[in-house]
Amino acid sequence: MKYAYYPGCSLERNAAAYDHSVREVSDLLGIKLQEIDDWNCCGATEYFSQNELAACAVIARNLALVEPQTDQIVAPCAACYLNLAKTDKLMVDHPEFGKEVNQCLAAGGLKYEPGRVTVRHMLDVIVDDIGETAVRDKVVRPLAGLRVAPYYGCQVVRPIDNNDNPEYPMKMDHLLNWLGAEVVDYPVKAHCCGGHLTQISEPQAFELIRRLLQNAQDYNADMIICMCPMCQLNLDGYQSRVNGFFGTEFKLPIMYFTQMLGIAFGIDPQKLGFGKELVTAMPVLEAKLGGLLV
Amino acid sequence: MADKIGIYVCHCGSNIAGTIDVEEVARWAGKNIEGVVVSRDYKFMCSSLGQQMIEDDIKNEGLTGVVVGACSPHLHEKTFRNACKRAGLNPFLCQMTNLREHVSWVNSDKAAGTKKAKALIFAAAERVKRQKPLEPMEVEVNPATLVVGGGIAGLQATLELADAGYPVYLVEREPSIGGHMAQFDKTFPTLDCSACILTPKMSEVGQHENVTLLTYSELEEVSGSVGNFKVKIRKKARYVDEDKCTGCGICIEKCPRKVIDNAFEAGMGYRKAIYSPFPQAVPRIPVIDTENCTWFTRGKCRVCSKVCPTDAVDYDQKDETVELNVGNIIMATGWKLFDCKRIPQYGFGRLANVYTSMEFERLCNAAGPTSGKIVMRDGKTEPKSVAIVHCVGSRDVNFNPYCSAVCCMAALKFGHLVLEKTKAEVYSFYIDIRTPMKEYEEFYQRLLGEGMHFIRGKVAEVTDAARRPEEHGKLIVQAEDTLLGKQRRIPVDMVILMGGLEPQADAKELGLKCGISCSMAGWYTERHPKLDPVATMTDGVFVAGVCQGPKDIPAAVAQGAAAAARVAGMIAKGIVTIEPIVASIDEENCSGCRICNDLCPFNAIEYDEEKKVSRVITALCKGCGTCVAACPAGVITGAHFNNEQIFAEIDGILWDANPQAEVEIASV
Predict the structure, then answer these.
(1) Fewer CB within 10 Å: C terminus or N terminus of chain A?
(2) With an 8 Å Cβ cutoff, are A167 and B467 in contact?
(3) What residues contact residue A234 under an 8 Å CB cut-off, 6+ apart?
(4) Fold designation for A141-293
(5) Tens digit of pLDDT for each residue in A118-152?
(6) Does A188 touch chain B if contact means CB atoms closer than 8 Å?
(7) What CATH architecture does domain A2-121 belong to?
(8) Interface mutation target, options A165, A217, A246, chain B, most CBs of B under 10 Å
(9) Is A211 an interface residue toward B (CB < 8 Å)?
(10) pLDDT per residue over B152-186, tens digit each?
């Protein structure tokens, strides 16, 4: 199965582990990712409220760059996924606006026909296209005994329908279950991590992060598994600051679901970006999965 | 005889005249349609003056056909046919065309509307010229009635008819009649005990000389038509001989197999593998649940058979099909509760102390699993605080857009019961409180006085993820209080989800069997939403109770009685007039291929072995036209819908089409 691949900026820097593990796991599952040549930033969440036309034009450029023989684009980053999907939908639903976007693209000699490319999140590709049997078949190192808390965040489950329940999504629960892990059914799995709120109002942002960590810990999770670089950054990067702020002692590793697929598939943890996380996952992996990782 | 057609275009106040130039249509028709001798428009054609005008024209002008351009024939075809009849014109020489529902109500462009109205009038005029006088037929009405569903609506209908002296067959799929009302504790707003007012009716039905009770049975097949339906009922095997069983209950007492009762007790209590759903069940004859019975699953036990004093247990019993002849059918098939697990953020099935409204009914019920004590799932702790969540699955575009009509009052009732039986605080989370019926608003005022807290806001989630110390170990109900404009988190011990009412899972399938349709939401469609709420588009089939739409007990009872009154009227009259729109076979040219025999959905075609031809049984034919279309020799004719009439109608619709243009298109 062939997809255009849009890594997005985060995956080049802070979420490099996500990028590495996506590529490794895709190779093993036969997902052919063709990285879009000369892709540009999606503008993240802020640009839309500044200038919608410019924001969409910047995003649509990436859609226009998808080769004509490919009609699906996959993004691992939740914000990139939503921005690409939202832009396509806006252009389909409002043809006049679509024309304006195309006028912008014409300046660069590009054109995008609304609706031509289907935007997919990496999780959906693996769960819906590859499916349970193919995933289970590849598992050589079941994650038995490891208690994982799947964390969905907000941007993949809504507002674009990805065939999951936006209020109580289950797709990652199923996937981690196929890997043999003990999946923690905890209630805040689709609550917001605060996004960029850390840059504006730390107390509020820290409280949102604390709630997630607290609830996962209350349910005895060994680690939180996420599908968005922003969520990972907030929960992992700010974990020590949150501890300092509230006097808590959280020590929860925050990993990408593709990293977990990778170790279950027997891929070398180094290649999957293990070790890049700030709250190290190694001790709990050693304790729960034994010497498998060495 | 030359055609003398009268055209009558109705304004319907401004309903039609608002978007159609009715005067222009009438004037134009008078000039341009061949054979038209009078063409008039009038404010309200259905008024007595309008009808009189048509009658006078028939007499004075000697009209041979009448076209009325007005509303839907469902509303006034009878009116105008009768007017024609009074003036001596055969009613089937009157043709209605629908300028309201088909044109003015669905269009805002007056020029386009007027043009379409002209085409429809033209079509009707061309058609009516070729219509033939027909005489309606009369058939006798079988005085027996089938009532499907033994809930309160069905029971009421059954008793009304049986008390009037007519035989009734009552079919119920569960082992006992009683329906949902038998599960309830109290009824709002009077708070009288549900069982106390229901069970007398149940036993009356059970003992009535005119009622044949068919419980644990389902409607399989319906054929025939009004006055003379033939129905097949499947009596599921009870594995207990109904004639021998005395209902002593010793088999139930001795049965060693305990099963969670997901039906009557809503999963809150237990029953045995041989069971009767509740103590006041009618009939008292138990059934064996073969999925759980040790004899059926493992070939051991037979305790019930050993202890039965009358040797009534029969493990070899088989399902049985009963055929009945009835004149009318009343559908009172009820509803099912919305599956609260479909809203996972409310936690039902995941968080122990989240209850559905039906579970809570059983919890409150003195005959229920806790003998009416309001305690949490541990079976002993009384809640200190209870949240009641309204509109679970109702008034929600993601699930059911409609209001379930009874949940606000049931929530108030629950609030009262909690306040009466415990020391708990009660919080109601509502969108709007809807208490429109008699003494309902007063009940709401009473609960306000009793100290129930009302928070106006749709609940976002019910969670056990505590944020503050006081939330630990509690269920937290989060909602935006839209009166305060603030998010609120109320920690409680128990949450009750007021699940909405939904059509039965097989409502559509069952409806199709007797020729009635469902609304978008799945409720049975009545003949007219205001003026004919218990009849359906199929003559002789009536609806009553919640299967027609969410309603409370008084409304369901009223509909049950209303449906019975309609049926009683037909039985009292004794005959029913059937439209003479039937098929007929030209026997001279019939090849006897018998293709039509098997296709007829009403079994209305018989085969004459001697003459080797097929023949339509007129009394059974519904005029559907299937055989007409299927006959390879083209020798079957549908009265009132023959080829000549239909083609004339099409020609009329296309009066302004340019045949040359069609040739050009075809040649491209």
Answers:
(1) C
(2) no
(3) A193, A194, A195, A198, A205, A209
(4) Rossmann fold (3.40.50)
(5) 999 999 999 999 999 999 999 999 999 999 999 99
(6) yes
(7) Up-down Bundle (1.20)
(8) A165
(9) yes
(10) 999 999 999 999 999 999 999 999 999 999 999 99
